[in-house]
Write a structure and sequence with these properties.
The structure holds two protein chains of two kinds. By secondary structure, chain A is mainly alpha-helical. Chain A has a single domain (30-45, 54-328), classed as ABC transporter involved in vitamin B12 uptake, BtuC, CATH 1.10.3470. Chain A has 13 helices and no strands. Chain A has helices at 20-48, 55-80, 88-104, 110-135, 139-158, 168-171, 178-197, 199-209, 211-216, 221-247, 258-269, 280-299, 304-325. In chain A, helix 4 packs antiparallel against helix 5 (139-158), helix 8 (199-209) packs across helix 10 (221-247) and helix 12 packs antiparallel against helix 13 (304-325). In chain B, helix 3 runs parallel beside helix 4 and helix 7 (191-204) crosses helix 8 (216-229). Chain B is built from eleven helices and twelve strands. Chain B is elongated, with a radius of gyration of 22 Å. Chain B folds into two domains: 22-128 and 264-289, Response regulator (Rossmann fold); 131-262 and 295-302, Rossmann fold (3-Layer(aba) Sandwich), CATH 3.40.50.2300. In chain B, the strands form two sheets. A six-stranded parallel sheet of chain B has the order 2-1-3-4-5-11, with helices on both faces. In chain B, strands 7-6-8-9-10-12 form a six-stranded mixed sheet, with helices on both faces. By secondary structure, chain B is α/β, with parallel strands linked by helices. The chains are: A mainly alpha, B alpha/beta. The interface between A and B is large, with 38 and 35 residues.
Chain lengths: 329, 303
């Protein structure tokens, strides 16, 4: 039984829909607008720039979006639950550096290095969650502290070390576009399944939608929160490992501002910043919209600074569109 | 409202499109430098763009607005997808490009590197200041100024960065050969770091008599930090790049010297080298650009 109904968008909690086909239809209705926006934007660049039309370009868009998209999957979980993790960019840096050390200096095999790296990401995420629920300091502040502290940790770990030239078995993950895209889809599918098919995942919507009611309904808020932050950290770690593999080096300066890009992708996709509703499919689309704009403008010879302005405008438009369309329902 | 929105979007698209029409040129070359917020690199990009225009070639500047290795790699990948004829790379981190250069080789796109070498067989030419030799000149200057005494603080670039290492080694070798103690600090080319390190080390180590910064803005930061501590008098601060702001500091007596990199020549020669390769002609593997020592004696010539 579902104790919480988000009355802003009826039926937005997937726990309400019955059956897989209904669920699919329900989700599609939710994301058709974002899909349409992505289609319009893609079509625009398709028309404007002949070289943009190749399949390689399309694959590149997916490939270049994959690292941030994976990070954004974690952000989606945390935001749906009503939380916020500003430190994921720094967790990204720590895991990148740590994995680099495991591979290049301790000479551990890739599988072990990745497993350890992911554990560190999960651990730092869980630490954020733990501090937040125990001290009850707002997540914004706790994770702001985390952002600075973890960055420092990454710098200390990396100090003076040249973390580069990793084994081919590891580099395979980040080379080209196909493998990163596959990893991105796997991460997204697993995140989606977590949110819709597991009790812990379903709970995120309840907790984010109305924490008081959830608490009265007997939902274990604190424990669940820690899990959500942990998963956010884990996915940030996965994204970091992918980037380290792609670039073939690790350094503590990586990941700067990534938490903000992830939030942008989530918001453009239509997930609410205030929690209670949203989904990973939307986030992927949001990320693809951002990447398509960046790539498309590049092809048209428009410089990076203008690209940033364009993204900023899209973020505001997306949220306005989202907020504006609600009264009509 | 959906209809109105879509109409507005279409009209905007058409307007934007007409404004963005580009005249087709025979050849297209892409350029990606370190960043667009760095004086030195702005000079490289401007000179390269001018040379490209002189040669009648379309010049696409894909440099990011802040030094981001992943964004630069993505830009190179995009240039390859766009099917440009050649790419000039001024790497943020020269270790990021292996897979991208393999793709460029397959696509038959020429690649030259500027300022920092990239270890890959497909890079046809490297246009750079002989950093080691030029830093050696800076090192000799410092040794001369110190007269045998004092510790030298070196503020460096990123760990493992080829250019940064060469500049550090040039000064370190000269200083250590003359018997000075050398302290080396990595700063990732960040000005704020230069300021902090200078402050911390000047306060904790009274023996420091000279500071070498591997990039000129860092030298300005060192000057500021030393001034704030009241320790600028007698301190020999040397930079690298030859940026206008530092030339002013040298004229004012705050900074002792700098090594000017001829960023104009670097830009011009990069384009020339790249076009040679595209045309199937010989291009030298290394195009060394000379560094020039500028101190208070000759600074007026360069301002």
């Amino acid at each position: 039984m579902n104790p919480v109904q988000d009355n802003r968008t009826p039926g937005s909690n997937p726990g309400v829909a019955k059956g897989n086909l209904d669920l699919l239809k329900h989700n599609f209705l939710q994301i058709w607008q974002v899909l349409a926006a992505l289609a319009v934007i893609y079509a625009f660049f398709y028309i404007m720039s002949p070289p943009f039309r190749s399949f390689d370009t399309l694959l590149s868009i997916f490939g270049q979006a994959s690292i941030l998209a994976i990070l954004a999957c974690g952000t989606t979980i945390v935001l749906i639950s009503g939380g916020l993790d500003l430190s994921v960019g720094s967790i990204f840096a720590v895991v990148g550096v740590a994995t680099g050390i495991f591979l290049a200096q301790w000479n551990l095999n890739p599988v072990l290095s990745i497993a350890l790296g992911l554990s560190i990401g999960a651990g730092l995420g869980a630490l954020n969650g733990f501090i937040q629920v125990v001290t009850k300091v707002p997540a914004f502040i706790v994770t702001l502290g985390g952002l600075t502290a973890y960055k420092g940790l990454a710098e200390i770990l990396a100090s003076g070390r040249d973390l580069s030239r990793f084994p081919d078995a590891f580099r395979f993950l980040g080379t080209g576009n196909v493998v990163p895209v596959i990893i991105m889809f796997c991460a997204a599918i697993l995140t989606g399944l977590f949110l819709t098919k597991t009790r812990l995942g379903n709970r995120a919507f309840a907790i984010g939608g109305n924490e008081e009611v959830a608490r009265l309904g007997g939902v274990p808020i604190a424990k669940s929160r820690i899990y959500y932050y942990m998963l956010g950290g884990l996915l940030a770690g996965l994204a970091a490992i992918l980037e380290v593999s792609k670039l073939n080096f690790a350094m503590p300066a990586r990941g700067q501002s990534y938490e903000l890009y992830a939030i942008a992708a989530v918001v453009i996709g239509g997930t609410s910043l205030f929690g209670g509703r949203g989904g990973v499919g939307k986030t992927l689309l949001g990320m693809l919209i951002m990447q398509t704009i960046i790539v498309g403008l590049s092809y048209m010879g428009v410089g990076t600074s203008y690209q940033r302005i364009a993204i900023g405008v899209i973020i505001i438009m997306a949220v306005y569109w989202d907020v504006w369309r609600k009264p009509a329902r | 409202m959906t209809f109105k929105f879509k109409t507005a979007a279409t009209v905007a698209a058409l307007a934007f499109g007409m404004a963005g029409t580009v005249v087709a040129a025979d050849k297209r070359i892409a350029y990606t430098g370190f960043s667009t917020d760095n004086t030195f690199w702005i000079g490289v990009a401007t000179a390269a763009a001018d040379e490209a225009e002189r040669q009648g070639v379309e010049f696409i500047d894909m440099t990011a607005s802040s030094p981001d290795a992943a964004a630069q790699k993505d830009a190179v990948d995009r240039a390859i997808d766009m099917g440009v004829d050649g790419i000039i790379i001024g790497s943020v981190d020269n270790r990021a490009f292996d897979a991208s250069l393999d793709k460029a080789a397959t696509a038959g796109i020429a690649v030259v590197a500027v300022d920092t070498g990239i270890e890959h067989s497909h890079v046809s030419s490297l246009i750079q200041t002989d950093n080691l030799a030029a830093a050696g000149i800076a090192g000799e200057y410092i040794v001369e100024q110190l007269g045998g005494e004092g510790t030298v603080l070196i503020l460096g670039g990123s760990a493992g960065h080829q250019t940064g290492n060469a500049r550090r080694d040039g000064v370190m070798n000269a200083a250590e050969a003359a018997g000075h103690e050398v302290i080396f600090q990595i700063c990732d080319w960040q000005d704020a770091c230069a300021f902090e390190k200078t402050t911390n080390f000047l306060q904790s180590n009274p023996n420091i008599k000279a500071i070498f910064s591997a990039w000129d803005p860092g030298a300005l930061s060192a000057v500021s930090a030393a001034q704030a501590l009241g320790k600028l008098e007698g301190l020999v601060i040397v930079g690298f790049d030859g940026n206008p702001a530092n030339l002013v500091a040298i004229a004012e007596g705050e900074q002792a010297a700098t090594i000017k990199q001829d960023n104009t020549q670097m830009g011009i020669r990069s384009v020339q080298s790249l076009l040679s390769v595209i045309d199937g002609k010989e291009a030298p593997a290394l195009v060394p650009i000379d560094g020039i020592l500028i101190d208070s004696d000759n600074v007026a010539d360069f301002q």
